[in-house]
Specification:
281 residues; alpha+beta; D-amino Acid Aminotransferase, Chain A, domain 1; D-amino Acid Aminotransferase, Chain A, domain 2; nine-stranded mixed β-sheet; six-stranded antiparallel β-sheet; 15 strands; 30% helix; globular
Length: 281
């Protein structure tokens, strides 16, 4: 596999990162995960804009323009001869100077890698369970894709040990937030409801696209707070991210949720998403 490491395309065996890198030592950095369809990266500009906004807020120097990052991503796809791919762009603050605190926006280190991913032929279905992890409403890092991913990996590991596919994160006061790797939506009649960005959730790129597609299908799209009891009253619940696309939640806490109409609506959303991903790139 060939990767991009700070301006160069290298075989992965020749790519070396310092053991003093702040991303390795402290999880001090950001990442984006993207999906290429037919050789074109879907919603690439939106992903890079989010990275840039997070880097600015967290005082991380990228050192590359969006155009340069875009070219690096396509260089990696070409070098690996990939058309259908999962792409990861990682940004670290760079080398540890001996002080844990940091000053300003020094140039970070950028790594881009890509692996093949198979085209989805069927709507994914998942089981969801409650995570023991609860987030404070003022946990600002939830709004950024940081390299410090351990809380979400912990929630996912909890779910897998319990025999489920995904863990549901709640706020300290019991409001539904998101999955360990994905944003969450709920269908009730003709309303498409998702937790709002005032809560500690990631402003997902796929989340935003699905909200647009919901409107195209004539659904009333709402951002709202709700508790987990409403999951059982819904017509359907589903999760979204760039690799999963749209994943129907077939059960929560071991109880089957939703009905035939809700499942068909979710399937229509997924089909529309796939159609746009493959036509627009």
């Amino acid at each position: 596999m060939f990767i991009f490491l700070d301006g160069r395309i290298l075989d992965e065996k020749d790519a070396v990162i310092s053991v003093l890198d702040r991303g390795f030592l402290f999880g001090d950095g950001l990442f984006e995960t993207m999906r290429a369809y037919n050789g074109r990266v879907f919603l690439l500009s939106e992903h890079l804009e989010r990275l840039e906004a997070s880097a600015k807020e967290l005082e991380l120097g990228i050192g590359y323009s969006k155009e340069e990052l875009s070219e690096a991503i396509y260089e990696v796809l070409r070098a690996n001869n990939l058309k259908e791919a999962r792409i990861r762009l990682s940004l670290s603050r760079g080398r540890f100077s001996g002080r844990v605190e940091y000053d300003g926006c020094e140039k970070g280190m950028v790594v881009v890698s890509a692996v093949v991913v198979e085209e989805k032929k069927e709507l994914m279905e998942l089981s969801l369970v409650r995570s023991g992890l609860r987030l404070s409403r003022d946990y600002v890092l939830a709004r950024h894709k940081t390299l410090s991913y351990l809380p979400y990996l912990y929630a996912l590991r909890q779910a897998r040990r319990g025999g489920a596919d995904e863990g549901l994160l709640l706020s300290e006061d019991g409001k539904v937030l998101e999955g360990s790797r994905a944003n969450l939506f709920m269908l009730k009649e003709d309303r498409l409801i998702t937790p709002g960005l005032g809560l500690p959730i990631l402003p997902g790129i796929t989340r935003r696209k699905v909200m647009e597609l919901g409107k195209e299908l004539g659904l009333l799209v709402e951002e709202a707070e709700f508790g987990e009891e409403e999951i059982f009253e819904s017509e359907a619940v589903f999760l979204t991210n760039s690799i999963m696309e749209v994943g129907l939640v077939r059960s929560y806490e071991g109880r089957v949720i939703g009905g035939r109409r809700g499942k068909e609506l979710v399937r229509n959303l997924w089909r529309l998403y796939q159609e746009q991903a493959r036509s627009n790139g």
